[in-house]
């Protein structure tokens, strides 16, 4: 009516919310511009990478009549890979980025540490104490396994003790900043040396799963750095609410990480993988994401994530 002051919006201009999950490959930068001299020369901006993925679907990424664009929910740094949520729904993105609503995310990490000889000596001594010098056949056969488990425990303790209290840094102007990168759980899956390492090389590698709730910038790398461990490979392998529905191929051992090029000296993939939009019919029931895959979430997947927020609010 002429007295009705509400605006009429053509239905064709109403943007349909879209929700995706992708497996971001290494070399894709989740920012608006490349950092010259920092990012690798062949790095690709996430916006350019997604534009190629959706080039046959302009109504999704935006055109002259639709300015809503698909954006990442949170970030993964350039040399990290793994699961990354995408959406054009600003409220959904803000919800997931709210520090008070932290979806638990699992990261599989390969790290390199120093002091292998001390690590093995300490664990062998502890193994002898635990076995009480028993030399029966069962104990002898199990000695390597016990030592391996104790080595994994030592690496866990190193990470835990290095991150149990906040650290303080001071910049050039004397300003102090408190850093704290808590994690929910840490599981050391494998630890040891590679057969190709020289005897004089006192370094070792460890394969770790870290679960974080609050995604501070470079948190996983800083947790490892605090423990004097250098990250060689980092992949986000699961996101709470989607675990069990979408899966990725995971590195299961140090040897496998080396053969896949995640440790220096292995086969290294020196190019950035192009993305591919996988329709639900093509994706079938496997829910297995390969590097570069982009899949639209089902309504039940999105509802499950919103339900997690409701549960948090009821529990607070």
Count of helical stretches: 9
Number of strands: 15
Uncertain segments? 1-6, 59-67
Shape: globular
Task: Spell out the helices and strands N to C.
Answer: EEEHHEEHEHHEEEEHEEHEHEEH
Estimate the mean pLDDT confidence: 80
End-to-end Cα distance, whole Å, is: 46 Å
Instruction: Specify the helix fraction band.
Output: 25-40%
* Radius of gyration computed on alpha carbons: 23 Å
Structural class, by secondary structure, is alpha/beta
Summarize the biggest pleated sheet.
9 strands, mixed
Binned strand content: 15-25%
Report on the architecture of this protein.
The chain has 316 residues and is α/β, with parallel strands linked by helices. The chain has 9 helices and 15 strands. It has helices at 46-53, 58-61, 90-97, 116-131, 137-162, 219-226, 254-259, 280-283, 299-315, and strands at 19-24, 28-29, 44-45, 71-73, 81-87, 105-114, 167-170, 176-179, 185-192, 203-212, 230-239, 247-248, 276-278, 288-289, 293-296. The strands form 4 sheets. Strands 1, 4, 5, 6, 9, 10, 11, 13 and 15 form a 9-stranded mixed beta sheet that branches. Strands 2-3 form a two-stranded parallel sheet. Helix 4 (116-131) packs across helix 5 (137-162). The radius of gyration is 23 Å and the shape is globular. Residues 1-6 and 59-67 have low confidence and may be disordered.
């Amino acid at each position: 009516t002429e007295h009705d002051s509400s605006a009429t919006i053509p239905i064709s201009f109403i943007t349909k919310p879209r929700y995706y999950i992708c497996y971001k490959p290494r070399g894709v930068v989740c920012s608006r511009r490349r950092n010259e001299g920092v990012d690798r020369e062949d790095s690709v901006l996430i916006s350019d990478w997604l534009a190629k993925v959706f080039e046959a679907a302009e109504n999704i990424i935006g055109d002259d009549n639709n300015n809503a664009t698909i954006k990442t929910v949170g970030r993964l740094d350039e040399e990290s890979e793994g699961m990354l949520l995408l959406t054009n729904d600003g409220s959904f993105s803000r919800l997931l980025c709210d520090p008070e609503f932290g979806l638990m995310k699992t990261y599989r990490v390969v790290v390199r540490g120093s002091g292998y000889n001390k690590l093995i000596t300490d664990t062998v001594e502890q193994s002898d104490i635990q076995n009480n010098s028993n030399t029966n056949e069962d104990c002898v056969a199990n000695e390597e396994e016990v030592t391996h488990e104790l080595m994994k425990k030592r690496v866990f303790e190193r990470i835990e003790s290095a991150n149990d209290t906040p650290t303080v840094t001071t910049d050039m102007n004397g300003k102090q900043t408190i850093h704290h990168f808590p994690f929910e759980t840490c599981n050391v899956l494998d630890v040891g040396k590679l057969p190709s390492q020289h005897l004089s090389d006192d370094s070792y590698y460890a394969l770790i799963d870290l679960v974080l709730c609050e995604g501070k910038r470079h948190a996983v790398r800083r947790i490892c750095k605090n423990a004097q461990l250098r990250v060689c490979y980092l992949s986000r392998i699961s996101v709470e609410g989607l675990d069990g529905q979408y899966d990725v191929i995971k590195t299961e051992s140090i040897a496998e990480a080396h053969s896949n090029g995640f440790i220096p000296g292995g086969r290294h993939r020196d190019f950035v993988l192009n993305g591919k939009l996988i329709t639900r019919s093509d994706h079938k029931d496997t829910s297995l994401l390969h590097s570069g895959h982009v899949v639209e979430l089902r309504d039940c997947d999105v509802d499950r994530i919103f339900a997690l927020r409701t549960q948090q609010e009821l529990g607070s």
